[in-house]
Amino acid sequence: MPIAIIEKGCCPDQRVITGSIKQLASLVTKHQMKSPSLIMVGEVVSLSKQLQWVTSQNSVDSVINQLSA
Q1: Mean pLDDT value across the chain
Q2: Whole-structure pTM value
Q3: How many whole angstroms separate alpha carbon 55 and alpha carbon 57?
């Protein structure tokens, strides 16, 4: 079953790590994931690349400004 761990969602320093549910504990340890984090489970994880609208060059404020224009 696919999973995504989303750390600091909607923040400029957001991180998204994907893998399988069997890898969950090792991914958290390996990547030193911290709170606040969300864990998404299931096929929705396959959309993570398409939904990754917050990046270091693309802050939440700039996305909101684009949507408001």
Answers
A1: 83
A2: 0.71
A3: 5
